[in-house]
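Chains adopt folds. We examine one example:
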Amino acid sequence: MDGTTAVNNTGVMKPKRTLFGLMSGIAIGVTLLAGCGEKKDDAIGKAEKKDAEKPGVVAIKDTVKEAYIYGFPMLMNYGVMYEYFVDRNSGQFKAPFNTIYNEARVFTPKDTAVVTPNSDTPYSFVGLDLRAEPIVLCVPKVEKTRYYDVQLVDMYTFNYGYIGSRATGSDAGCYVVAGPDWKGETPAGIKKVFNSETQFGLVGYRTQLFGPKDMPNVVKIQAGYKVQPLSQFLNQPAPPAAPAIEFPPFTKDDMKTPFVKYLNFILQFCPPVEEEKALRAKFATIGIEAGKPFDFDKLSDAHKAEMALGIKEGYDAIVEKRDNFAKLINGWLIGSILGDRAFFKGDFLLRAAGALAGIYGNSAEEAVYPLAKHDSAGEPLDGSKHSYTLTFAAGAFPPVNAFWSVTMYDGKTQLLIENPINRYLINSPMLPTMKKNPDGSLTLYIQKDSPGKARESNWLPAPDGPIYLVMRLYWPKTEPPSVLPPGDGTWQPPSIVPAK
């Protein structure tokens, strides 16, 4: 996920397989397409006369923009789903659908399918296919001192349910995840039924790691995460298998076609809810419809240009929202940008911005993610120009029930960075090994070069260029001092200060 793209002599981007590069490539490609042709107005006039019964080409641009914003997180999710659970040669493949995959490690710079990856906790993943029948997720008893969460995400990227320390406690239990067509009762032995609005989804497990020597304990817990069809759990005959699907791959050739091809494919598995039916009907007027073929090459030049502009304006709006969705507090953006359908209240731009900021991030009650790209003076963080410090006053660490961390990312790619000590974050379990100041405060040294052996325990290596920092506050406390509600809490993060 290095964010790089190439452009061939036809003006079409040729992105690498990685998702970040893929989405960045779209932004570059639509800019090129939007600049093609000096007689665009004449072409639009001809197209409108020819297609009198269809929306005007200019109106198409606005609808494309709206559809692009609506579909953006769904496309990002599909890209991850395809690499994780479909394409065995992707280099990121985890396991077939409805099969758990446990990572007995934390994420490193080699993990490129998801931007701003979490390196705090070993992950487990399940790609859910709920078409044939519900799936049962069973979790073991986990000690109360160890945080874990099981996050349920649908194809819209809504966080529609949680299992774990905060949501359900530390005891063992089994839970059903059912698709939109299932209407059964809660089976015996099941603690709760979670209903997904879509036929496919992702389950992400985070299991707290206390340090390298603790990994065998995490592995034991992961071995207790069980996934099985409901029929197997109930010892009943299995229903007929769901039809096989030909998943369209994300390749450089397929990326010569606009997003509509993929969105139309995805929508087949996302039955429209009542509040979205009018919007889906609007999208259908320009060919964005579940399962409908879409051939960009058959469109008029004016139609192509306006579609490209719609995509570009949509992407620009998403970036703008991502960068301004929250309150700026001491250089940190703090707000709530991820959640369930009720949280978003139909704000699809906020949903898209959340996916761009960090797809599959937790809802605020599970974790809050302060983001920083600027120092205390408002200047962009840049490891090639400055070294920085971040000092927590004595007794003023982030107020959480679980643990907190500060993770370093490359400001250009939002990926973890290679560094000589293989340290990608500093978190609260590391505090016993760190050096405090005489007054009890703790200073982190944020810079590309070592601050020296005496301070290396507190060093968070930075890239030789733009910096993007993310705090993760797991299971934030609700009583003061608290970061909740995000942006209006009584606790505030300290500023990042250029070193003198």
In short: The longest helix spans residues 57-86. The domain at 101-233 is CATH 2.60.40.1610 (Immunoglobulin-like).
